[in-house]
Amino acid sequence: MAPPRTLPSVDEDDAGLWDRVRQGDELALAALFDRHETRLFRHATRLLTHREDAKDAVTVAFFELWRKRASVRLVDGSPLPWLLTTVAHSARNLERSSRRYRALLDRAPVAEHVSTDAPDDSGVLSALKRLPEREQAVVVLSVLEGYAEREIAQALGIPAGTVKSRLARAKAKLRDELALEGARA
């Protein structure tokens, strides 16, 4: 017989909740969701055009967290960096799917197509989205989320030196792209 589940304490840290999640405790997963959902949603809205897609990206990340709970890498006892990376992957997949769907709609006989893309006056987000996935993940975790190189390396399962070089390469690409945009304007 399984031990009775107890509600997580508000004071319980991510590491304690994570131990319970790994043992199959859905209430602990719900507590992690409540704790990190706002930050993950904010992260997803930076990467996606539509609010509903951002909600979907967060939901997918938590489903994956539950499904892969035996192999998730924690950083300082927290699954947040893993969740942030998974939200970014989900966002890319949702954007790709959305592009295919819009392309299909463009081929369908319709009187007029209205673009629903939100404007990005600075061009930074669109430039970020054009980076290769590996570089984008490092930029998001470092610049947007404020993680140290060591923590990013641990979350992504790569050496710290690789984080450094990907970040430098990504910043150079962004700088060049934004300079081109500025020259065109």
From TrEMBL:
<feature type="domain" description="HTH luxR-type">
    <location>
        <begin position="128"/>
        <end position="182"/>
    </location>
</feature>
<dbReference type="InterPro" id="IPR007627">
    <property type="entry name" value="RNA_pol_sigma70_r2"/>
</dbReference>
<dbReference type="InterPro" id="IPR013249">
    <property type="entry name" value="RNA_pol_sigma70_r4_t2"/>
</dbReference>
<keyword id="KW-0804">Transcription</keyword>
<dbReference type="InterPro" id="IPR013325">
    <property type="entry name" value="RNA_pol_sigma_r2"/>
</dbReference>
<dbReference type="InterPro" id="IPR014284">
    <property type="entry name" value="RNA_pol_sigma-70_dom"/>
</dbReference>
<keyword id="KW-0805">Transcription regulation</keyword>
<dbReference type="Pfam" id="PF04542">
    <property type="entry name" value="Sigma70_r2"/>
</dbReference>
<dbReference type="InterPro" id="IPR000792">
    <property type="entry name" value="Tscrpt_reg_LuxR_C"/>
</dbReference>
<dbReference type="GO" id="GO:0006352">
    <property type="term" value="P:DNA-templated transcription initiation"/>
</dbReference>
<keyword id="KW-0731">Sigma factor</keyword>
<dbReference type="Pfam" id="PF08281">
    <property type="entry name" value="Sigma70_r4_2"/>
</dbReference>
<dbReference type="GO" id="GO:0016987">
    <property type="term" value="F:sigma factor activity"/>
</dbReference>
<dbReference type="InterPro" id="IPR039425">
    <property type="entry name" value="RNA_pol_sigma-70-like"/>
</dbReference>
<protein>
    <submittedName>
        <fullName>Siderophore-interacting protein</fullName>
    </submittedName>
</protein>
<dbReference type="InterPro" id="IPR036388">
    <property type="entry name" value="WH-like_DNA-bd_sf"/>
</dbReference>
<comment type="similarity">
    <text>Belongs to the sigma-70 factor family. ECF subfamily.</text>
</comment>
<dbReference type="InterPro" id="IPR013324">
    <property type="entry name" value="RNA_pol_sigma_r3/r4-like"/>
</dbReference>
<dbReference type="GO" id="GO:0003677">
    <property type="term" value="F:DNA binding"/>
</dbReference>
